[in-house]
């Protein structure tokens, strides 16, 4: 192989290691910059990335070993490292989908890695023939990538960008495995040391692809979680007030286009007494129970917002205020049938309801204010009742 070719391979390897180092460091810094302590899932992902980087580092070390002429050892070790790398990618994907990495899985991986090492040792020591080693390596490397591909396909969530990036990376890895060896190996016609570098280069390129895909998907998940955390009330898992005002213009547009939308303000009755008698924890449990019952009754197109302490706001598309009555009566019945069991005691939960229609061109604050006035009236009427804003009707 020409000196210039070896030189360009060396710089490519160094470049891959550098890219990998920057990507891993950026990922670690990103995790560290998140508010609060990393959770168990993030900690496991951090460990995994450290392992990934270690294998890359070892692969680079193997590349350096050519200077002390341990060709046989380097070939075997390099292939083992590559296989470990793609299996780490597979484990990273399992962690991402919160799937267990059982001892059986680890056992199969170890068997495959050691089996490949033994075969490589045999074919290198006995035949020293790249034409036998190559199909063996290609076949072995394809197995974890194929398993990973089918795992992502099984777990794929519609519209999830992270899943799509991972699928793309595995497809690219599958295509590159049979392409890179011939391209680097045969076109450059390397000698023994050159072959070693070709192997290291292929290893690093593919692993950079895998780790890059995995890092992107993890970052996507984290951003997605941060975004949804910012819009969700932690205690009840309902949307928060911030989210309501963010999406309010969309509801106003829909009303402008002729759709009926009603707003319902609900307030749990005598919640302070509940807190005082059973404690704040019981109050929290009541709020979670109340929100869970609302989710049980309402559809995905309705919006449930925790508007204040014990106050919830429902946005019901497709409903006029009068049409919300049967729904709210159903909810009242559900509350009666489902008292909260708290430390052996049944806590009865009741609420009052104020309903107002959202009108075209009307400020959403004004609509909430009208629902609030109706709610005030419901409280004044003795609680556990529904009051409609415009009609003043009660149930
Ligand atoms: N446990 C718990 N209590 C809360 C939370 N947020 C607000 N509260 C309490 O909710 C109570 C609301 O009391 P009030 O506004 O007097 O309402 P109420 O007792 O339900 O009376 P009415 O609405 O008139 O039936 C206050 O004691 C707040 O401390 C929360 O997140 N958890």
UniProtKB/TrEMBL annotation:
<dbReference type="Pfam" id="PF00990">
    <property type="entry name" value="GGDEF"/>
</dbReference>
<keyword id="KW-1133">Transmembrane helix</keyword>
<feature type="transmembrane region" description="Helical">
    <location>
        <begin position="12"/>
        <end position="34"/>
    </location>
</feature>
<feature type="transmembrane region" description="Helical">
    <location>
        <begin position="196"/>
        <end position="220"/>
    </location>
</feature>
<keyword id="KW-0472">Membrane</keyword>
<feature type="transmembrane region" description="Helical">
    <location>
        <begin position="46"/>
        <end position="65"/>
    </location>
</feature>
<dbReference type="InterPro" id="IPR050469">
    <property type="entry name" value="Diguanylate_Cyclase"/>
</dbReference>
<dbReference type="InterPro" id="IPR000160">
    <property type="entry name" value="GGDEF_dom"/>
</dbReference>
<keyword id="KW-0812">Transmembrane</keyword>
<feature type="transmembrane region" description="Helical">
    <location>
        <begin position="105"/>
        <end position="124"/>
    </location>
</feature>
<protein>
    <recommendedName>
        <fullName>diguanylate cyclase</fullName>
        <ecNumber>2.7.7.65</ecNumber>
    </recommendedName>
</protein>
<dbReference type="InterPro" id="IPR029787">
    <property type="entry name" value="Nucleotide_cyclase"/>
</dbReference>
<dbReference type="InterPro" id="IPR043128">
    <property type="entry name" value="Rev_trsase/Diguanyl_cyclase"/>
</dbReference>
<feature type="transmembrane region" description="Helical">
    <location>
        <begin position="164"/>
        <end position="184"/>
    </location>
</feature>
<feature type="transmembrane region" description="Helical">
    <location>
        <begin position="130"/>
        <end position="152"/>
    </location>
</feature>
<feature type="transmembrane region" description="Helical">
    <location>
        <begin position="71"/>
        <end position="93"/>
    </location>
</feature>
<feature type="domain" description="GGDEF">
    <location>
        <begin position="259"/>
        <end position="391"/>
    </location>
</feature>
